Amino acid sequence: MPTLILVRHGRSTANTSGVLAGRMPGVALDERGTAQAAALPARLAGVPLTAAVSSPLQRCRETLRPLLAARPGLPLYAEDRISECDYGDWSGRKLAELADQPLMEVVQRHPSAAAFPGGESMRAMQARAVDAVRDWNARTEEAHGAEAAYLMCSHGDIIKSLVADALGMHLDLFQRISVEPCSVTVIRYTRLRPYLVRLGDTGDFGGLVPREDAGTVDGERDAAVGGGAGAP
């Protein structure tokens, strides 16, 4: 079966402003995110791709723009099932304001039980994303063979949930996975099992540099809903 290259969109204006964007319109890449997207063609140079599949949201389309310009023959498809989680009434709110909500603890500790008011559950989010990958795997293999590779540009929580599925992890453990903006995660699917080949690869180790805001109780902090912005 094919190899899936998952790209999280570049850093967005919502990431830097601490807003849970969800499916809000008009959320674009910020200056750093635009630079990250511009570097993507070189990072993937030499990797044969049969297609690019994108979340319909603006920040994903902007992330793929330089890659598509560098590969004019690469077909692009929109896929609603890998769009951001529908955070419902939480969309557009500051993460700092949501931190004390009882639901946030459920999101962190028991995400399989979390459902956003006016939105969707995290279980439904994972199920639709996994279904999309299964369908695109079959479609890609039929058209291009089992050794083909294709790319999906999506969002932090979507990618983390796909990695959890590939590893056979319960969704309740997916907050242990980290994928920074414009990071590349690779899953190779086979008849017997998927293999996680790369996880959250940014091409550098800047994310390992201690941050000034990293002080937490007992050395821990919550995983960012929506994936977070990663290192500035």
From TrEMBL:
<keyword id="KW-0378">Hydrolase</keyword>
<protein>
    <submittedName>
        <fullName>Histidine phosphatase family protein</fullName>
    </submittedName>
</protein>
<dbReference type="InterPro" id="IPR029033">
    <property type="entry name" value="His_PPase_superfam"/>
</dbReference>
<feature type="region of interest" description="Disordered">
    <location>
        <begin position="210"/>
        <end position="232"/>
    </location>
</feature>
<dbReference type="InterPro" id="IPR013078">
    <property type="entry name" value="His_Pase_superF_clade-1"/>
</dbReference>
<dbReference type="InterPro" id="IPR051695">
    <property type="entry name" value="Phosphoglycerate_Mutase"/>
</dbReference>
<feature type="compositionally biased region" description="Basic and acidic residues">
    <location>
        <begin position="210"/>
        <end position="223"/>
    </location>
</feature>
<dbReference type="Pfam" id="PF00300">
    <property type="entry name" value="His_Phos_1"/>
</dbReference>
<dbReference type="InterPro" id="IPR022492">
    <property type="entry name" value="Phosphomutase_MSMEG4193_put"/>
</dbReference>
